[in-house]
Amino acid sequence: MPLNHPATDVWTLLTDVADEIPGAPAFIHGARTISFAELQDAAERTAKGLSDLGIGPGDRVALWLPNVPAYPILYFACVRLGAVAVAVNTRYRAVEVADIVGRSGAKILACMPGFRRIDFLSILADIDPAALDKLTALVTVGEEGTTLPAVSARLRCVNFDRLLSRPRLATNNARPNMPCNVFTTSGTTSAPKFVLHRQGAIASHAQQVARVFGFTEPDTLSLSIMPLCGVYGFNQTMATLAAGKPCVLVASYEIDELARLIAHHRPTTLFGSDDMYARLLDTVPGDRPFPSVRWAGYANFNAALMDIAEVAEARGLRLCGLYGMSEVQALYARQPPDAVVARRKRGGGVPTSPLAHVRIRDPESGALLGVGQVGVLECAGPSLMVGYYGDASATAETVTPDGYVRTGDLAELDGEGGFTFLSRMGDVLRLSGFLVNPLEIESHIQAIPGIAACQTVAVARPEGVRAASFVILKPGATLDESAVIAHCRRGLANYKVPVRVLALPEFPVTPSPNGPKIQRARLRDMAAEKLSGP
Q1: What pLDDT digit, counting tens, does each position of 100-124 carry?
Q2: What is the CATH number of domain 254-426?
Q3: Burial code of 362-378, b = ≥16 C-beta within 10 A, e = fewer?
């Protein structure tokens, strides 16, 4: 039975399962099924191919790929070589790819030309070759494009199938302390930081999640919907593999296709965003549209969907709030599936590992706070990052001397062994000397008919810092700003009432693996511009 003997590195995590249940399915993609033995064999052959291209311990390999079998095969190949897989979001374009590949010093870039009508090679053609001066080879998955970009003139260009044809690599450089993953932070206000993890942390977290989340149940099957380039999708997939259970790799995020895959494969668990579940529930009819799903993990990204847990509950879908970030890995905490919906809907939860610890600190005095007191969340435990690759000063600012990550999140201890996530500290408003969660104002405004979504920021005024709100209107609706402000005056403390309410066609966003993230810094600039007049 997998998990009987804890694996200390990621390669052993795979081989322990492959040795015990070699023929069991590891991945399902379309009509193709890959067993654990086949996954190990493909990774060993690919490792040899990467070695032939000059990859060794510590080298970086950039994976600019969707959720297709080549992604985990290349990842495990890097693990065996002792190399580092650098995750690159498939939504990124020339400037972002150039920054991540260039700053990480990746020697190989793997991409999938033509995926979902995205011409990866044309995007590469828009990059100044000097920005990719450390790149030595390009690995293409699937059909190659008709033309290769200028940067490829000096590169070795190899199709992924050629790597699979190599003999198996005999050498194994996998070790617990060997770095293996780089994930990028969102970078909504600056260049993304590179979050570096070691094999021991990845392996132990995968095994712990598998145990606590019940993935060891005989009928477990997961849909890997969230992108593998982000910790949310990656950690879910690794935990499922650690349990020796299959994952369906989902390369498409179209809701109709997701609904079809759920009906066909009957997964026991799902992971996604509030928006994904809302769209699925709108698409699939019936009182209990997803009967195979025991519970579903979700992240609350959309303030307009604060009631999604109750809506899902009424139709037999049990949603559980989660907490995670690149620095501590995803699935760091989860609300208990047997809790009432009022608790399950909150972000945060009980830490997955018994060795993990959280604490709340007052952002001004630095004092540690007790149950129900709101402050900055700090996390410790075996899933923490090594640090920010190439940025020792940022690491020192984020990791405390006693080994806690300063998350930058506003939270409170819940008195039930866990914590409740409230918002990003960077999003918190300080109004009249009080810390105010913008969601409180946004939820109040979104209750007004005709308003589809709201974002609230703080803006400096001569009379002090005030709230300013931006809204997106429903089709056909018009904004009555004075009526919205009057509505806020009736229900909120005076210092929470926005000084202006402005309509936008859409919020400015930055792409991330879990979905677009709203650029609140840009909203603050827009508010300052609007309010700068007399």
Answers
A1: 999 999 999 999 987 876 778 888 8
A2: 3.40.50.12780
A3: eeeeeeebeeeebbbbb
